[in-house]
What we know:
By secondary structure, the protein is mainly α. It has a domain at 31-65. The protein is built from 3 helices and no strands.
Amino acid sequence: MGLALPQSFADCMRDETTAQEQLSTVWxxxxxxxxxxxxxxxxAGGSQSYVDLLTCVxxxxxxxxxxxxxRLRGASKDRNSQ
Length: 82
């Protein structure tokens, strides 16, 4: 299926911290309904994830206006190669 090997704990925590920092810039301006929906999605699997929360907000923003969506950098194994 082309899936990458599991991340180390340190890599996972770094991704969560980065996502939390990026969320701090957009969370306050996101509509309450979007925040509620994304919180539900980010906790649906039983564990909370800032990466999932950020992805939900980014996807909603992109779906609203693909050409003007803020380009936030989410978690990615290739994030340092850009």
